[in-house]
Each structure stands twice: as C-alpha cells, then as structure tokens.
Specification:
CATH architecture of the largest domain: Alpha Horseshoe
Helix content: over 70%
Order of helices and strands: HHHHHHHHHHHHHHHHHHHH
Oligomer: single chain
Number of domains: 2
CATH topology of the largest domain: Serine Threonine Protein Phosphatase 5, Tetratricopeptide repeat
CATH class of the largest domain: Mainly Alpha
Length: 492
C-alpha cells in the first residue's frame, strides 16, 4: 500500500516536472517553433532598421536570421524570408547585382517548398530590379520584368495576398512607364496601360488601407503624370489624395507635398510652392516626433516583455527545483518504505524458521524416544520422489506428513515444502531429465555402468552418454563430484 502511494506520488511529480521542463524548453529553445520566432523577430528588426535607413544594422540582423535558418535541420521558410530582407537591403543600398543573386537563390527555395506568398514577393523584387536597369535604351529589361510582375500578380491573387497584389500592379504600371521613357513621342496605348495598372494598385491599397503602398503609389503616379505632361491634373489628383489622408499620416502628407512643391514650381506658382514647402517641413517634423515616440514606446514594450519573460523563467526554474526536490524526497521515502517492508518480511521469515526448527527438534526427540513412531522412512521416500512432483503436490504431501504427528505443525510443512520446492527449482535450472536422475541415484547405490544398464534395460554406451551429459549440466568431472553435488541438491 505504501509503495503504491509513493509510486503514484512519484509518477505525478515526474509528470509535472516533465511538463515544467517542457514549458521551459518551449520558452527557450523548442526547436523549429522557437527557430521560427527568432528568425521572424530578426527579420522584423532588420525591416525596421531598413526603414530607418540603417543598412549596416539591418544587414547584420538579416544575415543572422539567414544563418539560424540554415543551421541544424534547416528552416527553408525562414531562409526565404531572410533572403528577401537582404534583397530589400541590397536594392536600397544600390547593390542590384547582389540583390539579383539573392533573388535567384530565394526563388529556387520558394519554388521547391511551395511558398507561394514568398514567391510572389521575390518575383516582384526581380521585376523591380529589371525596372531599375532602365538607365538607357540598351539596358532595358522591361519585358522581362513584366513577366515576373504578372507571375507575381497571378500568385498573389490565387493566395489572396493583397499587399503583393497591389505592389505587383504598381510595378507593372512602372514598367509600362519605362517602356515610354526613351520614346520621343509616347505610345498612348502603353501610357494608358500604365495608368490603368497604377490605378488598380491604388484601389487595392485604398480598400485595404495599405499606407506604405499608397505612399509608393504617389511616386509612381507622379512619374506617370509627368511623362504625360499633365502637371495640373497631377496637382489636382495629389491635392485630392491629401485631403483624404488621416491626420496622423504625416509621412504620406510629406511625400505628397514634396511632389506638389515640384509641380507648382514647374507651372510657375512660386508662392503656392513655398506654402506647400512650409507644410512639408511641418509634416516632416511631426513625422520625426511621431517616429521617435513610436521608437520609445517600442523600446518600453520590449523592455516590459523581456522583464516579464525573465520573471516567468525564474518562476519556472524555481518550480522545477521544487518539484525535483519533491521527487528526490519521494524516492528516498520509497526506498525507506521498501527497506522497512523487507525487514518486516525478513523478521517474519526468521520467526517462522525458528518455529519450524523447534518443531523439528521436538519431533526428532520424540522419535528418538519412540523409534516405532518415526516418520523417517516416509520422509526419506517423499524426499526422493519430490523431484517429480509439482509445488502444490509437495505442499500437500508435507501437510499430510506433519498431520501424522502431534509435534510438527503447518510451519514445518511450509518449511520442508519450501526446501523441496527450492531444490526442485535448482534441479530444473540444471535441466536434469528423469532418466538422468535415475542414473544418479543408481550410481549413489554403488552400481557400475553395466549394472545400471542391466537395471534400466539400456546399453552401457547409453548409460555412459547419459553420465557425460549429467557431468556437463552439473559442471562436474567425475562420479564422486556428481554424487557430492547431488547430495547438496537433495537428489540423493
């Protein structure tokens, strides 16, 4: 009962410890899940650094994310995300050749593992790089870029990735603008296509409130209006967009005002350009203050999260130590309980043995005083036959013998029974057959091999073969050793 309770408590404690250890492992280093979280965190930080134009810090974090993704069994999704971030950094740093190599590598992994959304992003990046190559009529890669952009759009529509869908539309429009760049007279059909794609991108960005993409769309639209010499229409469009902005969207407002300053200057309205420029400066100041406040808030949030994680981790380790102490205590108590139980059993067996010996001594004393009442013959015969009896038959016979005397009780029956059963087990372990036991007993009577053969109706060769097998099983080398060991085992 004690052992059952202690083992139950030990099991429960061990399960709790495993759970806590699992939680700790999950909190610190839970394999793929934790790798994903770390890579995502690094990519996010790199993206923020890129937004702040801290290219070195962004590249360091992106490369670290890439290294983590490639370690152990690998994390291909993280590898693609890290590579895409590096592509963005290279583009922003005017390292287009490096960006192209990374784009090819990322595209291969994304296609292999079926990362559709990421593949759409990569194809957009490749289309952008083709667009940036438009520095002369000879270097143009617009048609190639359009292939990538259309594929990106198709994938984005299929997986309902609205950001990639809007950006692909912008890039397609930009590439069509490029196709007219070196023409003395613009191709109206291509020009209209560019406007349609830019308008579609702006509609998606507006519908889903994609602020950053809407801001980029302003730049594309400015190029498009300028290419068509439509300054007044551009002013009207940008003024309308500006009116619809959120009050706190200072960055987009500043981007619009930057374009409006150029447009008003181009049409000769210097006073209006100056007013817009003042608004631009004001909005940039507010944006910087906003960014500083966001950064401070972000740092405070990160600090609070880190402190909470540290507190949780400390409590977790304390719990693990407490449960470990409980388990050790339970193990020690279990060993103590087992020890006391063994001691009690041993004491009971010693008492039973003592009682049995006293009964046997008393029985032998009476037999010596009254030889006619002795059970020696029956006991000797029973001991010889016991090797062929089962444990139940041995105990039944012992009880039968002890019932014939008033001196010996059930303790003696149990005692003798235990001895005989143990002896039978030893004989069984050796593996002696009934025929081999017969040969041992006849040898103990002093019979030679020929006499044993005659008695058992066997050949002398067969008897000798049996003897050799007996020697091997009992690990002896002679008849005298065989008889000595047989006496020890109670065979004779």
């Amino acid at each position: 009962m004690i052992m059952a309770k202690t083992l139950h408590l030990l099991t429960v404690s061990f399960v709790i410890l495993l759970y806590m250890a699992g939680c700790s492992y999950e909190g610190n280093n839970s394999g793929q899940s934790d790798m994903s979280a770390e890579v995502s965190s690094l990519v996010g930080e790199a993206t923020r650094d890129l937004g702040n134009q801290d290219f070195d810090a962004a590249m360091e974090k992106a490369l670290h994310a890439l290294e983590i993704s490639r370690t152990s069994k690998g994390f291909p999704l993280g590898e693609v995300q890290a590579l895409y971030t590096i592509i963005g950094i290279d583009i922003m740093s005017s390292r287009d050749a490096d960006a192209w190599e990374k784009a090819i590598e990322a595209e291969t992994i994304a296609r292999k593992h079926g990362f559709s959304k990421e593949l759409s992003q990569i194809m957009i990046a490749k289309a952008k790089l083709c667009s940036y190559a438009e520095i002369s009529p000879e270097t143009g890669r617009n048609d190639e870029g359009l292939e990538y952009a259309y594929e990106a759009l198709s994938i984005a529509e299929r997986v309902e990735a609205v950001e990639q869908e809007a950006e692909a539309c912008y890039v397609i429009g930009s590439l069509y603008i490029n196709k007219n760049r070196w023409n003395k007279t613009i191709d109206q059909e291509i020009y209209d296509l560019a406007g349609q794609w830019l308008g579609r991108g702006q509609e998606i960005a507006d519908a889903h409130d994609l602020t950053n993409l809407k801001r980029n769309g302003i730049m594309f639209m400015a190029r498009w209006f300028q290419q068509g010499d439509r300054d007044k229409e551009a002013i009207e469009y940008f003024e309308k967009v500006k009116e619809g902005l959120k009050e706190t969207d200072y960055m987009t407002a500043a981007a619009l005002e930057d374009r409006l300053v150029r447009l008003y200057t181009r049409i000769g309205e210097a006073q209006k350009a100056q007013e817009i420029h003042d608004d631009y400066v004001l909005h940039m100041q507010k944006y910087l203050q906003q960014k500083e406040s966001e950064t401070l808030q972000q740092m405070e949030t990160i600090y609070e999260v880190n402190e909470k994680e540290k507190l949780i981790e400390r409590n977790r380790y304390r719990m693990i130590i407490l449960i470990a102490a409980i388990i050790v205590s339970v193990i020690v108590l279990s060993f103590i309980a087992v020890h006391f139980k063994k001691e009690r059993r041993r004491s009971a067996n010693l008492q039973r043995l003592s009682n049995s010996k006293e009964q046997i001594i008393d029985l032998l004393s009476k037999n010596l005083k009254n030889p006619h009442a002795t059970l020696n013959d029956e006991i000797e015969k029973f001991a010889t036959e016991a090797t062929s009896l089962s444990s139940d038959e041995i105990r039944e016979k012992c009880l039968e013998l002890t019932s014939k005397t008033e001196t010996a009780g059930t303790d003696v029956a149990d005692y003798i029974g235990d001895i005989l059963i143990k002896r039978n087990q030893q004989i069984a372990d050796i593996g002696l057959s009934q025929r081999e036991l017969q040969i041992i007993r006849l040898s103990a009577e002093g019979l030679k091999a020929s006499e044993i053969a005659e008695r058992l109706f066997l050949s002398v060769h067969t008897v000798n073969t049996h003897r050799q097998r007996i020697y091997a099983k009992m690990n002896v080398k002679s008849i005298s050793d065989m008889l000595r060991k047989s006496r020890e085992l109670g065979i004779i």
